[in-house]
Design a protein that fits this description.
225 residues, alpha+beta, 4-stranded antiparallel β-sheet
């Protein structure tokens, strides 16, 4: 099982009740404003958990073998299969650019996620007067380097599933809406490499409730060193 957590005290309820043998649940800490990538196998599951509250996690995925498969998680195809509704409900599938299901949403505490906004990238922040600011596209490119990703533009060409992001109909609200302990869980339907970014977006003063991402833990099957 894969778990992503932010840096905070654990909630009172167990965060991993479906993993009976904790030794089999691999975890990894993702520093705030950074990324991580890990492989998952068909038939397994993974979680994204917000222990701090108001944290956004950008998620992308590519079907293995990467990059030769050319198949990746697609928000456009997912929206089509959901008849334009967003976000997906428990039991719905996330779909690839091959129009095939890659993940099934099996648990969701927050019920608020974004499927329309792009991943922030270095040029995006440079335009806002903060060159050198960390970004989700760069975080994911760095994390995917062991799999052969060469540039943040490769990540920027894929629209992410923005977990816990509150931007319905492209309207900018308080971006984070999740509470401490909220999590989503996905069943894996294709062997894939998943990349996540603890979103570093913190440059809009109109969003005082937006917390910069602190620390996350990920438990995955295969993490390349």
């Amino acid at each position: 099982m894969t778990i992503i957590k932010s840096n905070s005290s654990p909630p009172s309820a167990p965060v991993n009740p479906t993993c009976k043998d904790t030794s089999s649940c691999k975890t990894h800490t993702v520093a705030g404003g950074h990324g991580h990538a890990f492989e998952v196998k068909k038939g397994t599951s993974f979680r994204i958990i917000d222990l701090h509250g108001l944290q956004i996690v950008d998620m992308m995925a590519w079907v293995l073998p990467y990059p030769s498969s050319l198949e990746h998680l697609s928000m456009a195809y997912t929206r089509y299969h959901l008849n334009g509704t967003a976000p997906p409900a428990v039991g719905d599938h996330l779909v690839t650019n091959k129009s095939e299901a890659i993940f099934k949403l099996t648990h969701d505490d927050c019920h608020t996620h974004d499927m329309t906004f792009m991943a922030c990238n270095p040029a995006f922040y440079a335009e806002k007067g903060v060159p050198g600011h960390r970004s989700c596209a760069q975080n994911i490119a760095e994390a995917m380097k062991p799999w052969g990703m060469r540039s943040y533009l490769e990540a920027a060409s894929v629209d992410p599933f923005n977990v816990f992001q509150n931007t319905p109909d492209m309207t900018l609200k308080d971006l984070g809406c999740s509470r401490a302990g909220d999590f989503v869980e996905f069943e894996v339907l294709k062997d894939a490499v998943v990349a996540v970014s603890s979103c570093p977006y913190d440059v809009v003063s109109a969003n005082p409730g937006l917390f910069p991402c602190k620390v996350a833990e990920v438990s995955g099957d295969q993490s390349r060193k």
